[in-house]
Amino acid sequence: MKKLRRLSVIMLLVCSVFMTGCDASQIVEVIGKIAQGVQQAMPAIKNVVDTFSNIFGNDNNNNNNNAAVNNANNNNQQNTEANNNSQANVVTVDPNAEDVTGNTGNNANKSTESVEEIIRGAQIAVPYGQVGTENTTAAAAQIKAKYGITMLDGKSWKDEWNSATADKWTQQQLAQFAAIMEKLPAGFRGCTKGFAMQKDLRDNDGNEAGGLGGDPIMISSKAVVEEGWTSMASLVVHEMTHQVQAKQPDVLRQWAAKFWPNGKLAKSSITDYGNTDAGEDMAECVAEYFTNPEKMRQHDPERYDFIKNNIWK
Amino acid sequence: MMRASLFTILVMFMAMPALSMIRTLPFPDLVKTSEVIVIATVAAQEVLPGEKIAKTTTSLTVEKVLKGEIKAEESLQFTTPGTKERPVRDRPVFPGQGERVLLFLVKNDEGAWRLQNGMQGLWPLEAGSDKTLGMGFNYSIEKIQEELAKK
Predict the structure, then answer these.
(1) Is the CB of residue A15 less than 8 Å from the CB of residue A37?
(2) Are residues A153 and A219 in the same domain?
(3) CB–CB of B21 and A211 under 8 A?
(4) C-alpha separations of B132 from A123, A203, A224, B49, B126 in Å
(5) Residue A96 domain flag
(6) Residues A85 and A135 in one domain
(7) What is the pLDDT of residues A217-266, one digit of tens each?
(8) Which of B11, B17, B118 is the closest to A213 by Cβ?
(9) Which residue among A89, A116, A144 closes a domain?
(10) Which residue in B has a C-alpha nearest to residue A130's C-alpha?
């Protein structure tokens, strides 16, 4: 066990060196951000670690048993774990929407797992220094002081599946951003800690995205220019909703139980993109609630009320 | 101690950002710009290791061609990040073996078929009803045929 711990620390340091090019101050920043990420992702990570611990513990306790018994024990362990998750994650907003006893079997479990996967995705945090440099203009400093949000000028990066090109916040964009923050409720706004501006976000097939989830949020300047495909307000609020899902996961669990019973969409979201999963459904609807509340109310009064009562505070 | 070690390792491997809020094509543009539109069945799936996350290779058999020139029963293959259990947000996730999908396809620079606009080009079909799901929730096979009939 000591070896495992030592190995983890060595890997952490090696990764930090690779990510920062041996810059001591950046290494400290990277470690700090990872620690921050651990803190934010703690509930989700704890679930995963508990699962591992239980499985390993189970294996150790059954070393002398035959394979069939071990398999049966593991299956029971996993089933118990799944049932526990199901009970823990389903908040009984609408008892008719989902069988909270878990009696719906595989569908309910799959649905719960899929929501937990969305939450884990929203909780991903990368070191700020890896994707951007803090914008130190007066406007950015004011945003940080007033709303606690660090504004980053994005760096270019590429991984196996996605890529981004560097861009900087313009004074006009910072003013627009500050005006949006001013209109948001404090609880909603407080879930977001960082925003990086990139020029172009793409997957490896060349498909464009407006933003990249996680902490910091990365947005594409190309998406919000005049001839772009979305507005700054819509994109910013959409992405900030994912941070609400990361910090207040019960809200998404309630949303999913109500509008995606057993993992199936009951009624169309406000956009086609919102029909992809419960997380994007909520993000699209909250963005519409902010930019065009009357359209949102007319489209679906239930979703509108949910946002008003549970998210917009 | 074991928990602390696992925390550190997991956090390092979890740091995979995911796209969010893709650029959505209007339905008529999706139909118009796709070189091929087919109904296909998932024939096989294989999960492979990736740099940071596992990836899935899905092979499909074409069942019906709605648009374009592709041989019926021609085999299609796509590699996508993540797995059904561990999907990557905003990336296409194919359903399991034997399930059916509607695909909007274009050719990439190497001449291989790729999904038009990523996840927007993959509509799962509900077993038994052929209802289009995912980003196709508000549409149908008939609506695609109507759109194709417009000249």
Answers:
(1) no
(2) yes
(3) yes
(4) 30, 24, 30, 31, 7
(5) no
(6) no
(7) 999 999 998 888 899 999 999 999 999 999 999 999 999 999 999 999 99
(8) B17
(9) A89
(10) B15
Does some domain include residue A137? Answer: yes
> Does A213 reside within a domain?
yes
Cβ contact A8–B134 (<8 Å): no
pLDDT at A205: 84
Residues in chain A closer than 8 A to B20 (CB atoms): 209-213, 238-239, 242, 280, 283
Domains and CATH numbers, chain B: 25-149 (2.40.50)
Q: Are A240 and A287 in contact (CB under 8 A)?
A: no
Q: Tell me how close the Cα of A97 comes to any Cα of chain B, in angstroms.
A: 20
Structural domain total, chain A = 2
Q: Residues B35, B37, B41, CA angle at the centre, nearest 5°?
A: 135
Distance from CA of B42 to the nearest CA of A (A): 20
The parent domain of residue A42 ranges over 2-89
Q: Residue type at A311?
A: I
**Binary contact (B18, A2; C-beta < 8 A):** no
Q: Hunting for tokens 């021609």 — which residue is that? A: B74
What's the mean pLDDT when you consider all of chain B? 87
Q: Dihedral of the CA atoms A244, A249, A253, A254 (nearest 10)?
A: -60
Residue of A155, A205, A215 to mutate, testing the B interface (most B Cβ within 10 Å of its Cβ): A205
Does A287 map to a domain?
A: no
Euclidean distance between CA atoms A48 and A44, whole angstroms: 7
Q: Are residues A132 and A85 in the same domain?
A: no
Altogether, the residues listed in chain B come to a count of 151
**Predicted-complex ipTM score:** 0.87
Asked if pLDDT for residue B36 goes beyond 80, the answer is yes
The answer to whether the CB atoms of A272 and B120 lie below 8 A apart is: yes
Upstream peptide bond of A216 is cis (omega within 30 degrees of 0): yes
- Nearest-CA neighbor of B122 among B97, B102, B140, B148? B102
